[in-house]
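Field: COMPLEX_INPUT
Field: COMPONENT_COUNT = two
Field: RESIDUE_TOTAL = 316
Field: MODE = joint
Values follow.
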Amino acid sequence: MAVDDSVREALEREVGVEHVEELGEVSATLTRRYAAAVGERDPIYHDAEYARALGFANVLAPANFLPGVICWTEGAPYDRLREDGTEADTHLPGVPAQGVRVMGGGEEMHFTRPVVAGTVVTRRTVLLDVTPRESRQGLMLVARYADRYLDDTDDELLRSVRTVLLR
Amino acid sequence: MTTHHELQAGSVLAPQTNQTSITQVFRYSAATWNTHRIHYDKEYALKEGYPDVLVQSHLHGAFLTKYCTEWAGREARLADLSLRVRRFATAGESLTVQGTVREVRPGDEGRAWLDLELVETRDSDGEVCVEGTATLDVPLTWLAEGALS
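Field: COMPLEX_OUTPUT
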């Protein structure tokens, strides 16, 4: 199976529907691992004392950490994974569980405030639009999702628009 | 190449190279709980028509982010970053990011907005993998005289 009109219609029904997820506390271990994986050596991402000397409560997360994390839960059961390994239920609202290949196509991010380890984060996601496009491999759908990341006082940390390619 | 002084539209910043590896791509998937097989299952990547496992689009984004924040240091702040993946890169490839100042705009007192164009290229063949833009809040002292006029 590839994308077809039924997939497009399923996605179009999701346009404008807001999904709210409590992502939980951003732990210092997670942000440090992210920084290590990227190759960030700046001590502000690794050394809590250094970060405190600069006025932060703990280490900072690298700027694109929040949108970089794909899954904030323990992960779906294996029977709720798509063939490509992505999670069927939580990752991309509106995308069917099987038969669709998914790739990231880009992102626009606005960094409102630094994310300090220990911050409790909520994400609000809305599918903005779905656009069909012909590619060498046949029909492709371009879906744009808007995400807002908020702390526990509803102050914005980051907002982004991510482009997802579906084949 | 321009560092932190005499910046103006057209200034070219120093490049930064990231040597990727299968280990890095795996660690990035693990740190972000990205279970997409195209990043760790070579057989699956081949089935999808790629020569090897792919660098994640967010890891490309992380390279652009690192480029901007390392260059900005403590005196400047990355406000916006956008990127568009043009071509895939496979684990093991060397990727170089370079920025050019597109525009300089007035900011708050003593500050300016710097708009950068960013390009990430595959060193093996010079193909552009990612195009991006960034906006940074920088001290006025970083600008060349007359850069805002």
